[in-house]
Design a protein that fits this description.
Length: 311
Amino acid sequence: MKNKNANKRDFLAAPVAGGKGAGLAYSGAVVLFIALQLIVSVVLAANGWTDSAALAKKDWYLYLSFLVSPVAFGLVALWYLKKKKTRLPSLLRSQNCSWKYYLIAILLQIGLFSLSQCNTWFIELLKKAGYQAPDVVLPSTEGFGLLGVLVAVAFLPAVTEEILFRGVLLKGLKGFSTAGAVLLCGGLFSLYHMNPAQTVYQFCCGVAFALLALRAGSVLPTMLAHFLNNTLIVLLYKFGVNEFSTPVLITVLAVSVSCLILSLGYLIFFDRKKKSGIDGEEGAFERKSFLLFAAVGIVACTLLWVAALWG
């Protein structure tokens, strides 16, 4: 009988991969995101909208703020597809993705909720250095407004960020070991958001999503997990859930930790695949190429992260 795994292509070694292209995509996304923000600020200032407190109460402004990043990511993804002369399906997956990875994506996202407490501890540590976490403000979620918020805050970021980070960036890290690629992808994902308050949680999500994408050979399950994560944040915001009672919290954490252990345990210990990537001189070249061309984005994000910390 023919081995059903025999035709599976190496996700990191897929033809669209490349350290230089992925590095340029990361730097390009960062630069374009910053440029679009500056353009929006200039246009608003030119029309007399300079009161940030007043703007924060305008739904159109809040929607605009949340859409800048997906637009930047989408444009960079289109550039990458054109540059590599490939189609979107090839970027999303390199094999037929088993249904089990969608189930793992759901369990993984439930599990990641337990790590929010780690983020709370990190914020408390930052506060000792004078950091004040900004309040999260979403557009109105009343009536059909909830649907609009889910599209702008949950769906579009999940799709565009997964395409760029786990579809473009991760494939471009083929010069690194599997563990190195997963950790670096998670770190760059966290750094891009330039939000000290979410650093730890976003890093954990980025690492988990990268591992899931590698095992699944597709970013579609990570899109599902990412969307569920964002949707949960929106729903908690809508219903004003800031904390749980002790019995409820213990129950939720117990279920969440169990799901995290099961999903990550399976991906790490039972779904192991042959080492991906490139070794030797070619691997070293790919690593240097990626880091060189991603340097602009990394430096810019680091500076803005520090500015947000001390701002």
